[in-house]
UniProtKB/TrEMBL annotation:
Keyword Repeat applies: yes
Domain named TIR: residues: 17-185
Enzyme superclass (EC): hydrolase
Catalyzed reaction equations: NAD(+) + H2O = ADP-D-ribose + nicotinamide + H(+)
SMART domains per UniProt: TIR
Classification via PANTHER family: ADP-RIBOSYL CYCLASE_CYCLIC ADP-RIBOSE HYDROLASE, LEUCINE-RICH REPEAT-CONTAINING PROTEIN
Protein name as annotated: ADP-ribosyl cyclase/cyclic ADP-ribose hydrolase
The protein's Enzyme Commission number: 3.2.2.6
Organism of derivation: Rhamnella rubrinervis
Pfam families in UniProt: C-JID, NB-ARC, TIR, WHD_ROQ1
InterPro entries (alphabetical): Apaf_helical (IPR042197), C-JID (IPR045344), Disease_R_plants (IPR044974), LRR_dom_sf (IPR032675), NB-ARC (IPR002182), P-loop_NTPase (IPR027417), TIR_dom (IPR000157), Toll_tir_struct_dom_sf (IPR035897)
GO biological-process terms attached to the record: defense response; signal transduction
Protein keywords: Hydrolase, Leucine-rich repeat, NAD, Repeat
Length: 1074
């Protein structure tokens, strides 16, 4: 395979260009000045071409660089003393100057005279010309080429350049030079605005013109104001992207209003994000005042660009950007808001400008509408007149155009369009809310209910949570939410798996509930304001029109009577929680709505439900942190056949749970942290559909009823922290699929029947035994009888090895052995079926995946974080590359990726394309690169960190020709299975990753011409990247990989003193119960 020639930093802003900067240099500066310059450009996000061979070997052989030079917008020429002695450097210089003159390229050329006097170059003397004389002798028979080189030297010396002399502080020089490069590269015309953002380029130009004409001081506060739905946030995002190169750092604080309203300490969270974005690290802030002080101290010397999105209160400005002295000279703070009065109320007139976002021009509105209604830039001829009517009524509001276009896309004929437009004619073109309501009116009843519930209660909540509640209400949420998405009435934040509704649509939904003219609270279908809730109860004005109440921060002392519930007989959804709970101040509750399907009452104040409460449609009951002692004290109570889930965690008054016959179809029962729970009634045997029973930290529970052996459907049993629990009954549970007895020493008194029970569970698929005190010899001889076992957790135990018969578990796929301090070796005991293994923090482990021994294990995911003894004996590079080779020789699933993470300070030498000190690397793609014998990509990164490492924060971003490669970010494999919140104590760790062709290739890649593919390692905390590398893997490379593994040297990893060993049990308890 041809060698890689380049390593690059962040992406280009213009897809027509391959790179933003081309670095031309002599090998003598490669490991010093040039490498520091490259890293600084990389950190600034400037996509830079660097000749890797010259950098690391000091060689000058760099053929085929013409395309890279032509594709770069800027060339930086580092003219050092020996630069002119290299024919390759001189050829590069000639090519660079040709591109500078080429009217189609117009390349920017920035010379750096490194320890070379520019005047000496012009006068043809000094070190650089001495080097040129040796080159001149070598090519004395080619005077034409020599003359071309000489002219190039004279020409570049005449370009205004930058001088590094003996007294220059190189760090300061590089910092200033990178700013120069950024300013040269800046070009608004090169901004890559997505095609569907119609009118954004003209809006951006108007905003920039407005900012440039302002005459205020050094720190600019810029208010972007206008009606909701006009695209203020999108404009701010485009401005940030366009101008980011002019600042040291940027931060985009999205949804400020929503974060402050819905999240505890939301403003503190935003303060932390601002500091993290600018300073690249986590900061502890206990309150808003402390955060204000930290921001003003830490950012006052930083020139930054900050966006505060959707601000609606002065306190938000005061907490995030109170004064201009908080930020360095030249900083800009963008504030998007519907209330432009906030800006002059906070800042002096000379400190700010207001930029009002206008509606779209008719031509732009037509283009946006057509893209949604017809999937094209303009409407078909038959629909032009109809489209013009829509444009008029939408009044240039982008959100309205998107919603209406999506709505009308479903109308198949012109007659259907006429009918839809006739409905549109009923609304005034000035009333945007009513325009948006047209799509709402087109929904079926269940979709309307879902829309209104999300608008009033669940905007920003997780999809799973909303789906569960809507399902309990009988609204068919899968189809309903999909319909709302299709009609642009709802969106999904895929990164956080949350449902998002534009705030304008949310307001419309709430206005529909409130009615015009405004209805009194007791006659609305939904109540979400605490004051309305108090009014309805205290004045007993509730009616059967009320369907749902969600008020999560009520104060019981403000409620004088609960009789108001007696009039609200149709409530299906009730979610309330008391902030300051005082049971002695609570009035007696004599009635609750019997139509309830979902009841969530945090800190429920009563000992039991009123006898009149018989909710036969109830699906989910949640009474977290309640005073409940007994759910129903009514001998005439009829069974609740629809009840599927009960959650009573933290209800400390419960002593005995009984009368399970009242909910015979229960599937989930959660009793965690019920401190006084002493007994579970034998009637639990009637719960034939119970799949999950959780009893975490029920410290008073003495026993379990023998009748539990009849729970044939039980899949999850969690007994973590049940410190008083005695014997488990013999023959207990015959067909459960998951058992968790975490926190118990199975060898201690009272647990003698546990193993007999476990090994008899022939259908057991998942088994959790973390922290059970298991030692050598604790495993029974018939442990291998668990023929269905797939998932096993044995972390935080005391054994030094696994029993030999462990390999009789034929279906075991996941094995967690993390934090086993005495574990020393793993080998033949591991079954061949294993796919995922975790031995993190097994610091005495010295033998595992031994490169010098026979090993049939073909795990696709291997975690060995903080295992210094292992790599000191076997070598990290050798272990990693051998494991990859074993996997590639006979992969159990060709479409499955491979991951291994272990301590190390250097990536394996098998990665021929690698770069030092950069988080990004670019791999050139040659013709026919995507052949049938191409197996996939192999990536490796060596990184170090002193912060807590959460695996979801470390990802690879991959782009092909500057476009997303289509598979999203590549995260750690099975990160949800990995329990790790510790600090890495060794100098560094290696993550080696293989992405197979069968899962990560597009068929169209065969027929398209691509120049390169770029890999960028990203993390939230800015982990220090020592090295990263990439390699295209072909079938013939596997043999070379095996040879490399045998010859690969290995480095010793220093093992630190473990100061926390004495408190291991305390740390274990905290870890198990996080």
């Amino acid at each position: 395979m041809p060698p890689s020639l380049d390593a690059s930093s962040s992406q280009s802003t213009n897809p027509r260009d391959n790179y933003e900067v081309f670095l031309s240099f002599r090998g003598e500066t490669g490991k010093t000045f040039t490498s520091h310059l490259h890293k600084a450009l990389d950190l600034k996000g400037i996509y830079t071409f660097l000749d890797v061979i010259r950098l690391y070997r000091g060689e000058d052989i760099s053929p085929g660089l013409d395309n890279a030079i032509e594709g770069s917008r800027c060339a930086v020429v580092v003219l050092s003393g020996n630069y002119a002695s290299s024919r390759w450097c001189m050829d590069e210089l000639v090519k660079i100057l040709q591109c500078r003159k080429d009217s189609k390229i117009q390349q920017i050329v920035l010379p750096i005279f490194y320890l070379v006097n520019p005047d000496d170059v012009l006068k043809e003397k000094g070190a650089i010309w001495k080097g040129f004389q040796s080159l001149k002798k070598e090519f004395r028979h080619n005077q034409e080429k020599v003359k071309t080189w000489r002219d190039a030297l004279i020409q570049v010396a005449n370009i205004a350049g930058h001088h590094v002399h003996d007294g220059t502080n190189e760090a300061t020089f590089i910092e200033a030079f990178v700013k120069v490069v950024s300013s040269k590269l800046f070009d608004a015309a090169l901004l890559n605005i997505p095609k569907d953002l119609v009118g954004m380029d003209s809006r951006l130009e108007r905003l920039k013109l407005c900012v440039s004409r302002s005459s205020f001081g050094d720190v600019h506060f810029i208010g972007i104001c206008g009606l909701g739905g006009l695209g203020k946030t999108t404009l701010a995002e485009a401005y940030l992207k366009d101008m980011s190169g002019q600042f040291e750092a940027t931060s985009f604080l999205a949804n400020v209003r929503e974060t402050c309203e819905k999240e505890h300490d939301g403003l503190v969270k935003l303060q932390k994000q601002l500091l993290r974005d600018v300073l690249k690290g986590e900061h502890t802030i206990n309150n808003v005042s402390e955060g204000k002080g930290m921001i003003s101290r830490r950012l006052c010397c930083k020139t930054i660009l900050v966006v505060l999105d959707d601000v609606d209160h002065l306190s938000q400005l005061q907490g995030l950007a109170e004064e201009k002295i908080w930020f360095g000279y030249g900083s800009q703070v963008i504030v998007t808001t519907r209330d432009e009065s906030l800006i002059p109320r906070q800042y002096e007139e000379k400190e700010y400008i207001i930029h009002k976002v206008d509606e779209l021009e008719d031509s732009e509105a037509l283009q946006l509408f057509s893209s949604k209604a017809f999937k094209r830039d303009c409407p078909p001829e038959d629909y032009k007149e109809h489209s013009a009517k829509v444009i008029k009524y939408a009044s240039g509001l982008p959100l309205a155009l998107v919603v209406l276009g999506s709505f009308l896309r479903g109308q198949k004929t012109t007659d259907e369009w006429e009918d839809a437009l006739d409905r549109l004619m009923k609304y005034s073109d000035a009333e945007i809310m009513r325009v948006l309501r047209i799509s709402f009116d087109g929904l079926v009843e269940t979709e309307k209910n879902i829309f209104l519930d999300i608008a009033c209660f669940f905007n920003g909540h997780t999809i799973d949570y909303v789906m569960k509640i809507m399902d309990s209400c009988g609204f068919y949420p899968k189809a309903g939410i999909r319909s709302l998405l299709n009609k642009s009435l709802l969106d999904i934040d895929h990164d956080k798996n949350r449902l998002r509704m534009h705030d304008l649509l949310e307001e419309m939904g709430k206005q529909i509930i409130q009615g015009e003219p405004r209805k009194v609270p007791g006659r609305r279908s939904r109540i979400w304001l605490e004051d309305d809730f108090y009014h309805v109860l205290n004045n007993e004005t509730g009616t059967e029109e009320v369907e749902a109440i969600i008020c999560r921060n009520i104060q019981l002392q403000k409620i004088s009577t609960w009789r108001g519930f007696s009039n609200m007989k149709k409530v299906r959804l009730l979610h309330i929680s008391d902030v300051y709970f005082r049971r002695d101040r609570c009035q007696e509750i004599e009635y609750l709505p019997n139509e309830l399907r979902f009841l969530h009452w945090g800190k429920f104040p009563l000992k039991s439900f009123p006898r009149s409460f018989q909710p036969h449609g109830l699906v989910e009951l949640n009474l977290i942190n309640s005073s409940i002692e007994r759910l129903w004290d009514n001998p005439k109570m009829e069974p609740l056949y629809n009840l599927k889930s009960i959650d009573l965690r933290d209800s400390s008054e419960i002593r005995k749970l009984e009368n399970f016959s009242l909910f015979p179809n229960l599937e989930q029962l959660i009793l965690d942290w019920c401190d006084d729970l002493e007994e579970i009634d034998p009637s639990i045997r009637v719960l034939k559909r119970l799949t999950s029973l959780s009893l975490i930290n029920c410290g008073s529970l003495k026993s379990l009823p023998t009748s539990m052996g009849g729970l044939k459907s039980l899949k999850v049993l969690n007994l973590t922290g049940c410190s008083s629990l005695g014997d488990l009954p013999e023959g207990f549970v015959r067909s459960d699929e998951e058992l968790d007895v975490t926190g118990h020493e199975l060898q201690s008194h009272g647990w003698k029947n546990i193993w007999n029970t476990i090994v008899g569970l022939s259908c057991l698929e998942q088994l959790y035994l973390d922290g059970c005190g298991l030692r050598d010899g604790a495993f029974p001889d018939d442990f291998g009888c668990l023929l269905s076992l797939k998932y096993l957790r044995l972390g935080y135990n005391k054994f030094s090895c696994l029993p030999a018969h462990f390999n009789r578990l034929p279906k075991l796929k996941h094995l967690d052995l993390s934090h086993c301090p005495n574990l020393t070796s793993l080998g033949p005991q591991l079954p061949d079926s294993l796919e995922w293994i975790n031995v993190n923090c097994c610091k005495e482990l010295h033998t595992f995946l031994d490169p010098l021994s026979q090993c049939n294990l073909q795990c696709s995911t291997i975690y060995c974080l903080d295992c210094p003894t292992l790599v000191n004996r076997q070598g990290s590079k050798r272990t990693a590359i051998t494991s990859l080779g074993r996997y590639l020789q006979n992969p159990p699933k060709p479409s499955k990726r491979f991951d291994i993470v272990l301590p190390g300070n250097e990536i394996p030498s098998w990665f021929t394309n690698k770069v030092m000190g950069s988080s990004s690397i670019s791999l050139p793609l040659y013709p026919n690169w995507c052949t049938n014998n191409c197996m996939g990509f192999a990536l490796s990164v060596c990184f170090s960190t002193n912060t807590a490492l959460f695996f979801s924060e470390l990802v690879w971003e991959i782009k092909i020709n500057q476009e997303d490669w289509g598979f999203g970010h590549v995260r750690w494999a099975d990160e949800e299975q990995l329990d790790w919140d510790g600090v890495l104590h060794s100098d560094g760790h290696i993550w080696l990753l293989y992405l197979p062709r069968d899962a990560y290739f597009h068929s169209e890649w065969h027929n398209k011409m691509f120049d390169h593919i770029q890999f960028s390692f990203k993390s939230l905390h800015g982990e220090l990247v020592e090295q990263c590398g990439v390699r295209l893997v072909y079938e013939g490379d596997v043999q070379e990989l095996n040879i490399t593994a045998r010859d690969e040297p290995y480095e010793a990893i220093q093992q630190p003193v473990d100061n926390d060993s004495e408190d291991e049990d305390g740390d274990l308890d905290r870890t198990l119960h996080l």
